[in-house]
Batch of 2 targets.
Target 1
Amino acid sequence: MKPLSVYIHIPYCEHKCVYCDFYSVINFKNQSEYLRAIKKEIRFYAERFRNQFFVKTIFFGGGTPSLMKTGYISEILNELSNNFNVNEDSEITLETNPGTVNRSKLNDFRSIGINRLSVGVQSFDDNDLKFLTRIHTKKDAVQTVLDAAGIGFENISLDMIFNLPGQTKEKWLKNLRAAVELPVKHISAYSLILERGTILNKWVLDGKVKIGDKDYDADLYEITQRYLISNGFLQYEVSNFAKPGFECVHNNQYWNYGDYLGLGTAAHSFVNNKRWWNYKSLTFYLKSMSEKGEASAGSEILNNKERVEEFVMLALRSSGLNIEALKNDFDAQWINKNQDKLSKFQNLGLLDIDDKFIRLTEKGYALCDEMLAEFE
Ligand code: SF4
């Protein structure tokens, strides 16, 4: 049996943050129907895949999964266990927003099997948080992490955003310092992305808000790498840093070209080389679940060239390209075809190459996209 990662999208939020383009709704009235649909979707895919896969990781993302009652999350976990072979030591992550949980609720989440929290802190500066229209303060964020650690969560991750308007290098460093002082094992640090259709994007287009240019962004990225690495975190993906042994198993499954099943609105799946994606809209998702018992809005099967490109891209962005796997399972000629470029990037100090792996160096992570664009 092969490992499978399961992602469950919980599309509810208290309000819509100005920068966010994840699918979420602020109307909670369809919650029970959504739960029934997720359980039905689990049964649908279990019939097809239960004999081929065991579940290695489960990830509740959103939206704001931590807004849901513990019983809600627990019913989904039970449905998975009743229909799939779920590994006893599976990594089970819940995205958690400060301001939506207290000690008692965190304790309840732990008691139903959640063993990893991904906390959406974004910044430890109250002005940044106000600007981003987050519902929490710095104090809430610190309290959430301390409460979680206090009741026994050992695997806590923080999401942080850099290059916010007016964010000096000192301010960002202060944020990183606040993060590493907490009992956390994993930090995801992303540059602020302007997504089309968001309020923030309109503010920038209208000239009401200015964000740092590409060079400034690169400086903040370098500060992030230096600071986190010198504080005991390993960089194992372009935007992800972990204490040894605490790399996110779920995300590694994506990046290692593994199989994953996405359930709920807007979720993506990739199983047995087929990729498909669910309806984004809650209304369409529920309608499709009720009429067809599944909710895929489209699908594709990658051709050979796409498979190779995808494998190389995911591997290089994360823990490195396994040369034997590349040759045996994807393209025996890829190294030969790209030898000149590989040597050039190695000489520039962007790649580390040995007999078994091709890996990005610290400097290489910053230029990953540029390098990938050059490979054939
Ligand atoms: S809480 Fe998260 S998912 Fe919800 S609107 Fe804000 S950023 Fe988006």
Target 2
Amino acid sequence: MIQGTLLCTVRDCRSPLTPGEGVLRCPRGHCFDVARSGYVNLLQPQDKRSKQPGDSAQAVEARRRLHEAGFSAALRDAIGAMLGAGAEDRVLDAGCGEGFYLGSLASRTGFAAHGVDLSVPAIQSAAKRYPQCAWVVANADRFLPYPDGYFTHLMTITARSHGAEFRRVLQAGGRLLVAVPSPEDLMELRGHGKDRTKRVVEDFRERFRLVEQQRATTVADLEQGAVEDVLHTIYRPMRTQPVEAMRVTFSLDLLVFEAV
Ligand SMILES: [Zn+2]
């Protein structure tokens, strides 16, 4: 479902798009097809570094199965509580993937939900699963196709960040939630990771003030198929040893900032 205002992504155009017959069009005549499932693809040729940018269909499906099995429910609940968005709010998920976090929080809370991702298979999957939200294929690293100050809340879950664009589309005092894998995330599969929180705070220091920080961790006993799915989501499906059922830790460092 396309709702609200989107901006044209043709280089330097940035005019508002208005809906027509199965398309969105800007006053200069740039035109984008709206898919039957309701999402719109605003990718420009320069955004497509590979033929299939972003997550592959296989990674999208693996991630969806893990979410549907409930392994991320505790993380989702922690994100929802820290985001603090209510029914009156307008929320953007930048790098939303197949839409689990945004879609399930929106159906619970009733906020206006907008998700952007570079991956066509991810956005297709999101639009089918969560039709009440607005889904857009675009390169969030380059330009977020929304007007200045459009959102009250923005979240980005283990995705790349673009501080200047995040600040531009957030209203003054708006909340930004950044989730990064904690050092414990998937440690049974890839060992202890690094702490990424200092780097995040440093990256956002000019435009955002850190107001809250918390680690959300959940442990799950995974069947062999689910372990394989996890490996697909981190692009490590090829292992010398066949995988076995095992206990796996999912863990995110959550940081909430206020736009200044
Ligand atoms: Zn245009």
